[in-house]
């Protein structure tokens, strides 16, 4: 389970931001939200099942997802996909002289195997500056290892002695530890690989492929089809097929470069996704099934729902964390709402999966859908840095309209648009 994520451009820099899935000590107007939208880890810690992040264009919403994507990628790959002279692909904050040459800061607090862990690091584009891993075995937080430049100090509970000398300056000690079969490091990287999934609502190729693999491997196939049907897309059945092909079977009009690549890898598999719709006669009587190709015949919204269905069902069944940037793109507001309600449900989400999404869909800004601590905002300050804050920080009435107040600017995080009446000057 995700507890907190922090990112910034220097540990002491005032613009560091923290996003938290810890439930605040508040009572919602709709008491069912305190039951369905929250789950208890123990008597002291309660976590949220979903959270929405709002903000104007260019306010930093997507950067939060990108920062978490970088952290995940660097944790998993830094020990095996880089050479000692390679730069680290971190993007520093470029709009402040205070942060020039300073490291970027990343920290993740999560639950794994019933224990709380806190892992983080600071990096520049040339090296790892610091790195740390703590956990809570019983009550108090305990250090497992801590790194300052190339000086790495271990506790007796982190069995990785001797690996310090094998850790390059541009690689994470945690990642190197996993390469050398340190059990806890392997489990943490397995957790972040399998449980923390970050996808874009604009570019669905990767998770479309995941949904296709679910069909091919018969993983959650029935549940995926059921979800697609219930979202009222007029679909009665879905068929996914794969066939082997060779260079000789390719159409003549295919670009030569692509043919050369396929020839190099020795062929591949062609995937077809058939979407079935019911066909009726002039009297409205059902007569037969008509099959369409997903890519050629279906709407962009239908394509996105199909692509999302696999990750959504898997997250719900496996208790995973799903982070979706541009969640509402190409989706009807009622479909977006239905997906959110799946996660905010004891029945549909018994394994306490967590959904975090970036959106402009104010239809979801409703006190019957979210508690105040589930709503977050991003806003750029005058210096171009992002401020991240929760609606729980505001004292508002129980019957306040989140959506109306947000559009009116009471919470900030909206674009302030100048007078456009004289944008086009008349030559008359």
From TrEMBL:
Residues 51-366 form the ATPase AAA-type core domain. Pfam families: AAA_21 (PF13304). InterPro entries: ATPase_AAA_core, P-loop_NTPase. Gene3D superfamilies: P-loop containing nucleotide triphosphate hydrolases. GO terms for molecular function: ATP binding; ATP hydrolysis activity. PANTHER family: ATPASE AAA-TYPE CORE DOMAIN-CONTAINING PROTEIN, ATPASE-LIKE PROTEIN. This is ATPase AAA-type core domain-containing protein.
């Amino acid at each position: 389970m995700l507890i907190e994520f922090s990112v910034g451009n220097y540990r002491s820099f005032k613009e560091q931001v923290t996003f938290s899935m810890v439930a605040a000590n508040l009572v919602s107007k709709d008491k069912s939200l305190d039951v369905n939208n929250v789950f208890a880890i123990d008597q002291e810690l309660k976590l949220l099942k979903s959270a929405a992040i709002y903000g104007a264009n260019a306010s930093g919403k997507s950067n939060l997802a990108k920062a978490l994507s970088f952290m995940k990628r660097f944790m998993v790959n830094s020990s095996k996909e880089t050479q000692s002279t390679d730069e680290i692909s971190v993007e520093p904050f470029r709009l402040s002289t205070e942060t020039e040459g300073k490291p970027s800061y990343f920290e993740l607090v999560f639950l794994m195997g019933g224990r709380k862990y806190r892992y983080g690091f600071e990096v520049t584009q040339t090296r790892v500056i610091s790195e740390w891993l703590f956990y809570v075995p019983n009550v108090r937080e305990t250090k497992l290892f801590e790194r300052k430049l190339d000086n790495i100090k271990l506790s007796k509970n982190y069995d990785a002695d001797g690996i310090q000398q094998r850790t390059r300056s541009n690689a994470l000690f945690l990642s190197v530890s996993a390469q050398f079969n340190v059990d806890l490091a392997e489990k943490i990287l397995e957790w972040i690989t399998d449980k923390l999934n970050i996808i874009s609502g604009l570019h669905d190729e990767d998770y479309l492929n995941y949904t296709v693999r679910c069909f091919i491997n018969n993983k959650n196939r029935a549940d995926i089809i059921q979800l697609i049907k219930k979202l009222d897309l007029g679909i009665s059945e879905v068929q996914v097929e794969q066939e082997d092909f060779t260079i000789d079977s390719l159409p003549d009009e295919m670009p030569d470069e692509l043919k050369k690549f396929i020839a190099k890898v020795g062929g591949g598999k062609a995937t077809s996704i058939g979407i079935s719709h019911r066909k009726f006669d002039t009297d409205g009587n059902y007569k037969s099934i008509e099959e369409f190709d997903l890519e050629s015949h279906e709407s962009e919204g239908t394509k996105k729902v199909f692509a999302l269905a696999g990750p959504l069902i898997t997250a719900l069944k496996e208790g995973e964390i799903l982070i979706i940037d541009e969640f509402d793109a190409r989706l009807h507001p009622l479909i977006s709402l239905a997906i959110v309600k799946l996660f905010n449900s004891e029945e549909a989400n018994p394994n306490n999966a967590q959904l975090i999404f970036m959106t402009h869909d104010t239809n979801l800004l409703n006190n019957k859908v979210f508690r105040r601590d589930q709503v977050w905002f991003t806003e750029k300050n005058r210096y171009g840095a992002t401020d991240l804050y929760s609606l729980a920080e505001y004292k508002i009435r129980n019957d306040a309209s989140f959506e109306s107040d947000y559009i009116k600017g009471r919470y900030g995080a909206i674009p302030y648009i100048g007078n456009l009446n004289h944008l086009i000057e008349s030559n008359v």
